[in-house]
Amino acid sequence: MSTEKLRPLLIVEDDPALQKQLRWAFDGYETLTASDRESALVQIRRHMPAVVTMDLGLPPDADSVSEGFLLLEQILAHAPDTKVIVLTGQNDRANALRAIGLGAYDFFSKPFEVEMLGLTIDRAYHLYDLQQENMRLQQMQHPDVLSGLVTRDPELLRVCRTIEKVAVTDATVLLLGESGTGKELLARAVHESSSRRRERFVAINCAAIPDNLLESELFGYEKGAFTGAAKTTPGKIETANHGTLMLDEIGDLPHNLQAKLLRFLQERVIERIGGRQEIPIDVRIVCATHQDLRALIKEGRFREDLYYRLAEIVVNIPPLRARQGDAALLAHAFVRRFAAEQKRGSMVLREDAVRAVEAYAWPGNVRELENCIKRAVIMADGNQITREDIGLDEAPSDDVVALDLRQTRDEAEKRVVITALGRVDGNVVKAAELLGVSRPTLYDLMHRFGLK
Ligand SMILES: Nc1ncnc2c1ncn2[C@@H]1O[C@H](COP(=O)(O)OP(=O)(O)OP(=O)(O)O)[C@@H](O)[C@H]1O
Hints:
Shape: globular
CATH class of the largest domain: Alpha Beta
Helix content: 40-55%
Strand content: 5-15%
Bound molecules: adenosine-5'-triphosphate
Structural class: alpha/beta
CATH superfamily of the largest domain: P-loop containing nucleotide triphosphate hydrolases
Number of strands: 16
Distance between the termini: 57 Å
Largest sheet: 5 strands, parallel
CATH architecture of the largest domain: 3-Layer(aba) Sandwich
């Protein structure tokens, strides 16, 4: 049996018989079905299918095409690269052309030949793949937007690859990580790598604004909506229209605004405070928090339904202390950057400073390290930055990773030899077999390590 994963194909069709026929005909794809607009949008958000076939006449009023057109617009607003193939009624050329005008990929009038539809679907996937590949190549030509991010940690490098992949979709991204780990840096990277990069990136910190002002900050207000509302003012959501909105510290969003944000995410329209007009907004949401949202949900402080809307893609950013080798790497990079900014010529970190940086736990993560190095560059007398300039305690020697390869290897070998001898109760013949070395070699090793 082939283990290759089938590609998702969404079939939006309210007639169960036709739905079944299409599923059966296109079993080379992972067919997903939806019989109305709401469930189709759920499938789109969840699976991001490259190709969708949709009936224009959908419930509640299957005789009209209004739901179908609304769905078409919503699919293309959410995932503009999706290839939507519209199925119209007989002799319904006007609606077919209108659908194409709105961005549909192709249309078929019912009744249609399933084989023809199949060919069109295959071609749509092919075109989609070409366009994605093209976009990827273009991005390679425009240097990596993550190039400002310094890391060699495998976990964070994986995060970067995820960011690059999801950036080109319109999926909502939830960044989880301690304060100062680089959440805003990655949120900007999502924006810069997306097709929205020429539009605005707007960030709002939900924890930094008093609850009573947050609603007007987010949704804006009309002139006269409350005392002091001297003129109509758009909120951050509206300001970010067509671009990316970063909701930082989303875990601190008060309950009433959680409900309001959820409504916005479902309907993608806002009403300014004191306003009556619904304003459609097309914005990509990236949110971030250092809090454990699942724990907040259990405590009843965060809405579960909102969590699932926001957590389409969840990215966990490791704290600096868990990233291997990153503290020293970043410290060197920051020295270069701040020395250039302060016009201090070339500056270097002395060995004792590097050891201190490696040994410290950095509870404030990269931001703390950045501030610390900036201060040290200003404070250092010569062009060498010492541990004292950095203001960290002397590194306790056993906390520092030994960088001597021979010593590390010796220690590891000694540990393994001792373990092997212990396991076979000191029998050298058996221990040599266990270790896969000859008896004389084992005697040599035991001699070297002073083992009897
Ligand atoms: N890997 C990295 N390479 C280079 N600079 C970094 C890296 N990570 C973070 N920074 C820098 O560290 C500082 C803090 O990062 P950022 O503001 O993105 O963190 P944050 O997680 O959003 O913090 P908070 O939760 O407190 O808002 C910024 O100046 C950012 O440019």
